[in-house]
Amino acid sequence: MDGFLPRRLPLLRVALATHRMAETVSTSDSMTNSKRSCLGPLDLRSLAFGLMATTGVLDPAALQGQLSSLQLEVNGGASIPVAEFAGVEGWEGEAAPDVGFGVHFALTRGHVGYLVGFSEHRFRCPAAGCGAEIDLVSTAWDVGLRLNLRRSGVVPWLGLGAVAAIVQADVGTSEASGPQGGTVRGESERGWGLEAGGGVLIPVADGLAVNPGVRYGRVDLDLPSRGVLRERYLVVDLGFVLGF
Length: 244
Fold this sequence. Notes:
Porin, about 50% strand, 2 domains, about 240 residues, alpha+beta
């Protein structure tokens, strides 16, 4: 009973607008010069809004898109170190940001999404800071959970995930490849870490959304004979989400 009147309000608006129009027409039958005023802007507006409310055009839920439960997301952006490289002999120094990208599948059930995918983050450390030019490429498989604060429309979300990463390091050296210098490549053992962050899923078309977000990550990676590289970084990226 409590929900009866709210559900019938659009119908009542239409009936009231129609009644006003009929009353105006009946009182103006004998006044030829006033026939144009019988459908005044107020009555037309009331009828239009009543009809749209009845058919759901003004229903906020009808204006909000909702992706299907299975989604593919491709994202790209910036990988930004938030701490100096530490733990590796000869590599202590301030790292510079570089690019990152990822591909993930997501399965959403209610307010919870389950993600699995692949990501790559790149970092640089100039010779002035690390004693040698160092290019790091961290590749990882990751799984995570995403809590959606809404189920449709513009959806803010919070996420937490685990990453299993390997880092490859190209280290510039003047001793390699003759006087012109060169690079020496090293690779870490697989390291484990966490990522946490948030963002906003914004539908832009049927089955398509954009997903700007920010994540904080930390991974410890063992480089044989050099030590443990501690990565601490932010990822600021934009994802394109396709619903199946």
